[in-house]
Amino acid sequence: MKNKKFVNNEFVESENEIITFLNNQFIFHGFKNFSLDELALRFQISKKTIYKRFETKEEIIRTVLNQQLSEAYTNFVSIIQSRITIVEMFVELSKIIEKYYSVFNETSIKKLSKYFPELAEYIVNFRTSRIIPLVKILLKLGKKRQLILEIPDEIIIRVFNSALSDIVQSKSTIDSQQSYEGLFRQSFNLLLNGILTKKGKQILINKIEVVK
Is the Cβ–Cβ distance between 10 and 52 less than 8 Å? Predict the structure, then answer.
């Protein structure tokens, strides 16, 4: 570990490093319980130093999750406001889902609820009140422009959620991060193909060819 500068025996960058570390851990592994002793040892600081910024472990986790939810939501809104087709919006959306799905899938939320039920409920409410409505806006626009088949929104969302959850749960058995990303994107495109009209599929084919 690189040398660290201390001021009054406190590591001045401890807060940002802890948040960054846990942010990466959650994105790759989903929610993973940890102890303050582990954090103190990893960053070579005392628990007293951690408590000067965070009153509880729950506050640390809340800070990390709030940051992730805010980033995901902001990126999602940016996609909707962009000047691209609905199909392309779904392709871009898949990249956001891929990044954060390990954190916000049902298995990870269930694990979180075991230790911090209020945080788990907060995530579920955020997803229900802010994320799902944006997805429904895209689906409505896609159907209006005859790019998406007339399938009930709830069925589409449930099928995508179930299939992608299975992929995330098998993440630990996939040989590399690159392989996982490839499988996730292929699976998402396959699911997307299943709800597109002929016109929508052609746009997706053109999009994929451009990416290649």
Answer: yes
